[in-house]
Amino acid sequence: MNLSNLLRFDYWLDPAVTSQPAGRSMWMALGLALCAAIALFVLGRRRERALFTALALAATIAAAVVVGRILQLPVLGWRIGWLLAAIIALGAIVARFAAVARADGLIATTFAAFTFSASEPRPWRIATRALWWSAHLLSMAIVAVNIATPLWPQHIGLAAALAPLPLLIATAPGLLAKKRNADAALAPFVYAYAVALLNFLGAHIDGPLNGLLYLPLALIISFGYAVAVGLRLAAGADKRFAAIGAALLITASVTWAAWAALTLRTHGVTGSDPYAYTQMGVDLAKHHTLAHAFPFVEQTYALSIESLPVVHIGYRIPTDVRRIAPTVWPIGYPWFTAAAWLLGGETGVFLLTPLFNLIALGLITLLVLRAPIANAPQRTAVAALTVFFTATSYQQVEWQMIPMADIAVQVFSLTALGSALFAAQHSGRRRIALAALAGFALGIAFDLRYTQVLIAPAIAFALALALPTAEVRGAKRLRIDAAFWIAPLIALIAVLPTFVYHTTWFGGPFHTGSDELSNFSLTRMPETLLRVLSEANWRREFGLLTPLLALGAVALWRSSRRLTAALALYFIPVFTLHIFYDYLRLRDILSLFPVLYVIIAVGVVTAWALVERAPARILRIALLFALTFVFVLRSMETLALPITRGFSAFGYLVAEQRHSFDTIATVTEADAAIGCSLNSGAVDLHANRRTFRPGTWANNDAALFIRTLLDAKKPVYLLIDGEEMQRAADALRSHFTLQEVIRVDVPFYFAGSGSENRKVQLVKISD
Fold first, then answer.
1. Where are the domains of the chain?
2. Are strands 690-692 and 755-766 parallel, antiparallel or unpaired?
3. Cα–Cα distance between 281 and 289 in angstroms, integer?
């Protein structure tokens, strides 16, 4: 018999009685059970009657089940009888130990640990510890065997069984030195055991709270709560607990972010934006220009056909004799991708955005720790929670994995705001230096995304209004001094390269290559606003945290109105402008996310402060479990991404897809032309082959272009990487012969939007 069956619910609830004849073991079990029952009944008359009577009753029930299985009686032979006998026997034994446990204050100690109450419990005797650990290990073994999850169930079960041990090892040294009971840190696992019992009984909850009875989630919540209890017991004081807990949470968040980056970062780029930012940096590093060459424009001009299909999406049509053209995107981020290319090659470019993410987490920590938010322990808690929320934001994770400017915009915007806030707390040269840094960061943020100029009012407000620290009040006067004027001057210097670029390529400093202004609409603003709020209300982002956001906003306004005003001036102008943009996506306002997460973190700390003052300690347990449930439910899928790899973003390539472009380079000639759709930039960058997009030509222009290439003895291929290319290939079959060369793994793009990973055809065109 498999011993794990003893811990399975379905094993005990199986109503079937064996149809095989009873063997020797079953008869032996019957004899032993009957002998035990008789002996215990006899002993019960002479010694402790209640204990021995209960044990004798358990032995009798066990013997009855054996008889039922020997005689194949449907009800009497059910295994559930053995479970009942075991419960009776264990209950009698536990009752003996319970008296000792009560004397040792087991319930009071665990309740105090649950509620983070200051107490000096008596050390537990061996009997109490034996009872406590036996109950936990048995319960945890049951959880480990019966847990059901699609994520490596055997590993989750093993982790469940071993979860109490590292917790005890981590907390025991400091606790034993102070004669505290480290064992009490296991108390929160009672929630997981209760959920396992309710699953056994078939209980369920419909609606948004159905996750409360999901055993893997309950186990994670219990473990998180238990870690917090263990840290609180080890720290001994609230200040130490806040400092140690914050340091551990920040370290864990940053470590996880680094692990996720190394695991999930892209291995190549395709599409439009991610490819273009990389290509601009490569061209700047290699050719000292942000423009890219499109030699096929010579053929389109000669044939008097549309030139857009021989230019990658996002690039302008070349108008000079060199056949080079700029993109429609700002030039700020390519400076960084160029430096990354020079320092680390292709891998350096793809690790650049994750590096910016780690810098952002560090800036958030520094900014919050120096901000005038309540007292020091609360500031450390707010800093740690803000870092955790930001690191586990799905948008933050998604857009750090590809070479996009959004995380860099966040970094320089936070640098500008933080430097201005810090400058307000200093004077003299340090204030001048911080103001200059704020102006420089503001200028770089503008170079990265033009709309970031709207954070300038927040920078000016922070510089003009002295912000006191949390401990020092006063200094309410305006400070219009040299530092106030140095910031815009440095910002102007920082944006000069962008103005020169605009003048060189587009005819004026305020002329950009983009037509995005036409996508701003007053009439469609309500629709855009509702859509973005709906996306932000997603469970992985702000949906579960909205009540804490409201509470935090009120608390922050009451504790520091000037800081609240600075954050509002940072948030409101940028958000207001963007909701008029028809194609607004959450990543466009990613620089605003940390502000919201700071407010949410303040809400968490405020909620705890309110409950801590409440006379009913049960409220602390309710709040801690509620917060742990919300945090875990919001973040668990994101935290599991390095394992599940359930991740995909526009322009993202896994390692196998990146190798596919090397394969294309291997099977095609160096002077080959390849027709494709949104993978045209990737074929150019990674396979070093000239491309065109035949699906965007009208009439027979694609056939005319291909005929010109074939007449010039140029090899021509088609990569059927989307519905657009499927239609183009079908149309070209009436003019040419298409022969499959190989199938490669690349993104397949659908009409309108969206893509999926597929094995697609690479075909060669011939007469």
1. 1-103, 292-325+653-766, 332-644
2. unpaired
3. 9
